[in-house]
């Protein structure tokens, strides 16, 4: 998990990794759209690195937040050098 910002309005969200990368805790009153760029905003990472774009936006089960699916800007299969930050 890492804090991220979405789009030019810098909407806060939480990125959760896995087989499908999701963006959670997006405030329901904030406007995000498919194609919006997603940037790092969490501690331990350089601020503002583009990590992908929003592929799909949907309401969360709780109805208070939105969720989105992220399409990464990189191909995991092509990564060769990886650093683990703690």
Large-scale geometry: globular
Order of helices and strands: EEEEEE
Number of strands: 6
Provide the residue-averaged pLDDT: 87
Rg calc: 13 Å
Which oligomeric form is depicted? single chain
Helix content percent band = under 10%
Class based on secondary structure composition and strand pairing: mainly beta
Low-confidence stretches: none
Span between termini: 12 Å
Number of helices: 0
User: In percent, how much strand structure appears in the residues?
Assistant: over 45%
Main sheet record: 6 strands, antiparallel, barrel
Order of neighbouring strands in the sheet with most strands: 1-2-3-6-5-4
Overview of the structural elements:
The chain is mainly beta. It contains no helices and six strands. A six-stranded antiparallel beta barrel has the order 1-2-3-6-5-4. Strand 5 and strand 6 form a beta hairpin. The two termini are 12 Å apart.
């Amino acid at each position: 998990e890492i804090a991220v910002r979405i789009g030019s309005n810098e909407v806060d969200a939480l990125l959760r990794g896995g087989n499908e990368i999701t963006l959670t805790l997006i405030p329901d009153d904030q406007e995000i759209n498919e194609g919006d760029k997603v940037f790092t905003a969490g501690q331990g990472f350089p601020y503002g690195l583009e990590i992908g774009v929003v592929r799909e936006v949907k309401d969360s089960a709780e109805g208070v937040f939105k969720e989105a699916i992220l399409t990464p800007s990189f191909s995991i299969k092509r990564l060769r050098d990886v650093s683990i930050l703690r």
